[in-house]
Write a structure and sequence with these properties.
Largest sheet: 33 strands, mixed
Strand content: 35-45%
Distance between the termini: 158 Å
Structural class: alpha+beta
Oligomer: single chain
Helix content: 10-25%
Shape: rod-shaped
């Protein structure tokens, strides 16, 4: 039967000859690469890669720019898929500026690394067995590079450790040195064993070191090391001790060596906060025993302490401060506050030992600070050399100052320390409802230091100011304003005042003054008034105007003038006081404007020392005697020391304009406009200078 033209055969597509050639080429290349890898693997596995010891040393040396040596057996091969590195006597050198010759050395290193992690830049170690390892982490003097950063440009990078799945570490030590912080510490770690990224128990470490010449010891624990080796979190507990202080730190670290930007709970206590802060190069006055708590965050070269609270002595402290160590000079920035500041805890700021003040008083503390017997001003150096080593911006607020005599509240102080120049500006407080504002500048770049004092007392009610000294609020409406401007040279409070020059003036506007017949501090003015006037004061003294002023030269202050005009009397004073010897020798006389029942009054002398003032009824022959002044006692009770002495006489009333303006004795006038001849200034300023020299001749 004839074919109908249909075919039952099926045609198959055929690859081009060139396509078959490409497939065979790819296959052959793949087989070749696999064979080469297998050959390399086989050669390395059989030989253990010992022949690669030299290339390994040269490769690591080229990568790190450090000499690398393996003094014992060396192995480098795949086992079976991880890279196994085994080395005995491995040493990687440190830069020449480091304190130890080797960045890393070990008696024995056995580790396995995942190859794919290396390809993708991940630093993961599957197994590490380390015996006799020693790691030396150091910064150079300029803090521009460190021993663990191998960049050729000298840049510095933070330390980052690899993730370790399994580890066994024995006899491991770590050194850390930072010349800028003047810190050196050596740590010894207990034997560490882990399996499948789990260690199981706390890792203990201990060590010692030196920070700014202060030796310390360390004891710490990693409470969750399982998380640490897996690159997770770790609970750190650290205790540091010096001979006088203890510091406790705890917190959660993201890894073993990563403390950057991690909040750490910190507490410290000891006998003197100055010793603690001295560890980081911050100079403050000595304190009594302290205990503080804060949250510490390290960010690069900045150490921030926030949420701070605690006590020093009998005073509380709170706030925050930051220490910046990354600049050419360290810098402190602080906001601090105290609710109640005990007067004893203020003592160190002017050179007293607060513990001695608390036990035996200011006079004993002054003696221990180098002052002569019966003197108060301390002669202890304020550590100028330390103040030249760092800069600071500090803001400090005190709600209340606890003292027995003068009520002081709302203290505000701003401290600016810049390259050895210390400015206390503004420094203000409220004293008995009067505002005291001041600016104090100390130039520590000079030797000796130069101090400028500018202290202003706003209008202050005498009744509140002197309420603790027997002044009656009911009959006292007078106020006091004043200003102290002095410049002196010296590294102590005593020496700067003993060389000072300037002016002290306190102005008393119109008002009344009334004192009860009681003892006023060591000046028994109530008893003296009774003896002098043969009776108690019957009514408040009505003040027209008054001025208690001194001109200061070379630490000696001369009355210039002391002049108080009351309704019945004119009170004048002569003499002065010395900051150098702390002696005072003043004579006061009250001349009545009209006849009074009082009679037989003698001039009144105020003598002795700042620490032990004395009141005496003296004869007219003693009026010409020179002397040292009322000094600090004048700030305690100037009206009480003067206004109680009423006398009979034909006194000439004072023109209150120059008095209220704080003018010198030469500028004072009577109500009639005549030059006063009862202030020790004679008839001219020139003769007044002559008398002033004679007054000061006793010193």
């Amino acid at each position: 039967m004839p074919e109908l033209g249909l075919s039952t055969s099926t045609s198959q597509p055929q690859l081009p000859v060139s396509g078959n050639r490409h497939l065979r080429l790819v296959r052959n290349i793949f087989i070749g690469i696999f064979s080469a890898i297998f050959l390399v693997w086989a050669v390395l596995f059989v030989t253990k890669g010992r022949f690669l010891k030299g290339p390994f040393e040269r490769t690591i040396a080229a990568m790190t720019n450090r000499k690398t040596e393996v003094h014992g057996d060396f192995q480098l091969y795949f086992a079976p898929f991880d890279i196994k590195i085994f080395a005995e006597g491995l040493q990687i050198s440190n830069p020449t500026w480091a304190s130890r010759p080797y960045l890393f050395s070990a008696d024995r290193v056995d580790m396995r690394i995942a190859p794919l992690n290396l390809l993708f830049g991940r630093r993961r170690v599957r197994w590490l067995d380390l015996t006799g390892g020693a790691l030396s982490l150091e910064w150079n003097v300029n803090h521009t590079t460190n021993s663990w950063t191998f960049a050729s440009d000298g840049s510095a990078e933070p330390l980052q450790l690899p993730v370790i799945d399994r580890a066994k570490l024995q006899k491991t030590t770590v050194r850390y040195r930072d010349p800028r912080l003047q810190l050196l510490t050596d740590l010894d770690f207990a034997t560490i064993t882990s399996h499948e990224a789990r260690i199981g128990e706390a890792v203990q470490f201990k060590g010692n070191g030196l920070v700014r010449s202060t030796p310390f010891t360390l004891l710490g624990s990693l409470l969750s090391p399982d998380a640490t080796v897996a690159r997770g979190t770790n609970q750190l507990v650290l205790h540091a001790n010096t001979s006088t202080d203890r510091i406790d730190i705890s917190g959660t670290l993201p890894s073993l060596a990563d403390i950057e930007n991690v909040p750490l709970t910190t507490s410290a206590h000891g006998r003197n906060a100055a010793e603690l802060l001295g560890i980081i190069g911050v100079v403050v006055p000595n304190t009594r025993a302290y205990r503080v708590h804060a949250q510490l965050v390290k960010s690069g070269t900045r150490y921030s302490f926030s949420k701070m609270s605690g006590r020093f002595g009998d005073s509380d402290i709170a706030g925050a401060f930051t220490v910046e160590t990354g600049m050419p000079r360290s810098h402190i920035d602080a906001d601090l506050a105290t609710d109640t500041l005990d007067i004893v805890d203020v003592a160190p700021f002017i050179g007293y030992n607060p513990d001695l003040v608390a036990r035996r008083g200011f006079e004993a503390a002054a003696g221990a600070a180098g002052a002569a017997p019966a003197r108060l001003l301390p002669d202890t150096s304020l550590r100028a050399e330390g103040l030249s080593a760092f800069d600071a911006d500090v803001r400090y607020r005190v709600t209340r100052l606890r003292s027995h005599s003068v009520p002081v509240t709302n203290v505000v102080a701003t401290v600016d320390l810049d390259h050895g120049i210390l400015k206390l500006s503004p420094f203000g407080f409220t004293m008995a409802r009067g505002k005291v504002t001041s600016e104090v500048t100390v130039d520590w770049r000079r030797r000796p230091a130069r101090t400028r004092y500018d202290i202003r007392l706003g209008s202050t009610p005498m009744a509140q100011l002197l309420g603790g000294f027997g002044v009656s609020e009911a009959g006292t409406s007078g106020t006091v304003t004043g200003r102290i401007e002095l410049v002196g040279d010296g590294d102590t409070l005593h020496s700067s005042l003993a060389t000072s020059r300037g002016r002290i003036a306190f102005v008393i506007p119109q008002g009344t003054f009334w004192t009860r017949n009681v003892q006023l501090a060591e000046l028994d003015l109530g008893t003296f008034a009774q003896k002098m006037f043969e009776d108690r004061l019957k009514e408040p003294v009505r003040i027209n105007c008054g001025l208690v002023a001194f001109s200061v030269r070379n630490g000696a202050a001369a009355a210039d003038p002391i002049l108080i005009d009351t309704a019945k009397n004119v009170i004048v004073g002569r003499g002065g006081f010395s900051f150098a010897s702390e002696r005072m020798d003043l004579a006061f006389r009250a001349d009545g404007k009209k006849f009074s029942l009082f009679s037989a009054q003698s001039p009144v002398g105020v003598g002795g020392y700042f620490s032990k003032p004395s009141l005496n009824v003296i004869s007219p022959a003693l009026l010409g005697r020179a002397g040292a002044g009322l000094g600090l006692a004048m700030l305690v009770a100037p009206p009480a020391a003067i206004l109680a002495f009423v006398d009979i006489g034909d006194a000439k009333g004072a023109a209150c304009g120059p008095v209220l303006g704080g003018a010198t004795a030469a500028a004072q006038r009577t109500k009639a406009g005549n030059v006063r001849d009862d202030l020790g200034n004679s008839k001219s300023a020139k003769s007044g200078q002559t008398r002033r020299k004679r007054f000061l001749g006793i010193f």
